[in-house]
Hints:
This protein has 65 residues and is α+β, with helices and mostly antiparallel strands. It is built from one helix and four strands, in the order E-E-E-E-H. The protein is globular, with a radius of gyration of 13 Å.
Amino acid sequence: MLTPGNWQKSSFSGGGQGDACVEVAHTHPHISIRDSKAPTRATLTFPATAFVRFVEALKGRSFTG
Length: 65
């Protein structure tokens, strides 16, 4: 179960209330993400390995899968 303490947001989440980003929760063996502006709405959940590959691709790094 995801509780408020499970969610983390980036230090790059912007000014104000810091709600201009996504939040991430590690729920072994999965990663869940949600919109910080609408935390009570649906979350997306991925296998941790797939999420890591996704983030690496966003960073422009190459990987093999």
